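Example S7 (structure tokens).
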């Protein structure tokens, strides 16, 4: 199992960040244009007084070692299930791969720390586990590298979106 943390800062309030995190237009643009995903679809979105739940299906653009590419196949996709508790402001999500779902797990928890009136730090703690004999470590290392790259790109996209829209 591999654990790692990714952090980024944004020039918005905590409330604005959470609204942006679930903004359909921004997410669609970020995944398709910013990250270059061939497919990004919101399959389910529910909001109650206490929780937001979102299920998405995505086909990522990834740079993979040959052993990982061969195992995942050319039509790899993943489903992400996100839960946001409105009371605790805790957000958790898990990735469910289209192949080897019984051997590959990705879980994360995200929190937003206020750094001032219009500045926040996003902290995401990841856990990646690949139960694949002899090559599990390669899968975990590859997953971490791809997530770090994707989250850096998405953070830059969000920062530009925030500036262009004049959000605070």
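Recovered sequence:
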């Amino acid at each position: 199992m591999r654990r790692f943390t990714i952090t980024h800062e944004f020039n918005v309030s905590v409330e604005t960040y959470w609204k942006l995190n679930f903004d359909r237009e921004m997410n669609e643009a970020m995944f398709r244009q910013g990250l270059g995903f061939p497919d990004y679809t919101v399959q389910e979105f529910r909001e109650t007084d206490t929780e937001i739940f979102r299920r998405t299906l995505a086909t990522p653009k990834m740079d993979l070692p040959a052993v990982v590419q061969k195992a995942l196949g050319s039509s790899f996709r993943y489903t992400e299930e996100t839960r946001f508790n409105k009371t605790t402001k805790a957000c958790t999500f898990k990735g469910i791969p289209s192949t080897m779902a019984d051997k590959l797990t990705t879980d994360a928890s995200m929190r937003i720390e206020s750094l001032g009136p219009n500045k926040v730090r996003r902290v995401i703690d990841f856990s990646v586990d690949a139960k694949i004999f002899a090559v599990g470590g390669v899968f975990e290392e590859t997953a971490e590298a791809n997530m770090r790259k994707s989250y850096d790109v998405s953070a830059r996209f969000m920062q530009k979106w925030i500036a262009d829209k004049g959000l605070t």
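Notes on this example. The chain has a mean pLDDT of 95.
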